[in-house]
Each structure stands twice: as C-alpha cells, then as structure tokens.
Amino acid sequence: MVRRVGESVEVRVTGDLDDAPMSFLWRGRLYVVRAVLGHWRERREWWATAAARALHGDECAPAAGASATGAAVPGASVTLDRERDVWRVEASAGRAFGNGVYDLCREPGVDPSPTAQAWRLVQVAD
Question: I need a labelling partner for 27 at 20 to 30 A (CA). Which of 4, 54, 101, 111 fits?
C-alpha cells in the first residue's frame, strides 16, 4: 500500500558528497535506513508558491524582489525554479518491525547551508 504523507521529519545524513539519509525521526519513532533505492532531483511546484502568485497579481502582498508597485527591486531575487532532492530508501524502525520504502525529500532553503534545508517524508510504501 502506498500512502502520500507530506510531513516534516528530522533526518541524519551520511556527511558524504551526496548527503544520503542514514536515519530519520517520524512520529516519535527512529527509522534506520537499510538501503538507498534511488536518488533524483525534481522541480517543485513553483507556480503554486506565494512568490509566483504575487508576480501574477494573485496575492495582496508584493513578491520578494518586487516593490509595492510590482516593479523589480535591484539586487533582490525571487527564486521560483529551485529543485528538491528526493531519496527513496528502505528503512525500518527496528528488528521487530518490517522494512518499508520511504520517499524523503530535502526542500532547498534560502540559505544553502544544510541546516537551512527542510526534510519531508512525502510517500510511504509498506
């Protein structure tokens, strides 16, 4: 059974170049990653962000990087095209529990440091 989740999770990464997940905390339970089954990058739904709606006049507040009149402000930028990293992992909450397949995604933050990136559990197949 595959379920869409969309919940925030706390993730510990390997620390190598790819920063693959080692474990994650979900609903108070620690899951240990047994295997990484896949890793890919995907575009976010940039058209649904507040910044995109504001640029098209669908929001009351001006978009980041725009003045109250909607004109671009020099030096400011609106990031609409950021991609998110997705890892499909096999993990379990311990020996007594079976393995499941989990899709974890790391949403890019404004600050490129790893601490500024939010992790989400987007899908579970168990």
Answer: 111
Q: Is residue 117 part of a domain?
A: yes
pTM over 0.90: no
SS3 readout for the chain: CEEEEEEECEEEECCCCCCCEEEEEECCEEEEEEEEEEEEEEECCHHHCHHHHHHCCCCCCCCCCECCCCCECCCCCCCCCCEEEEEEEEEECCCCCCCEEEEEEEECCCCCCHHHCEEEEEEEEC
| Residue range of the domain that includes 96 | 2-44+83-125
Strands laid side by side in the 100-107 sheet? 2-8, 118-125, 100-107, 83-92, 29-43, 21-26, 10-13
Q: How many domains does the chain have?
A: 1
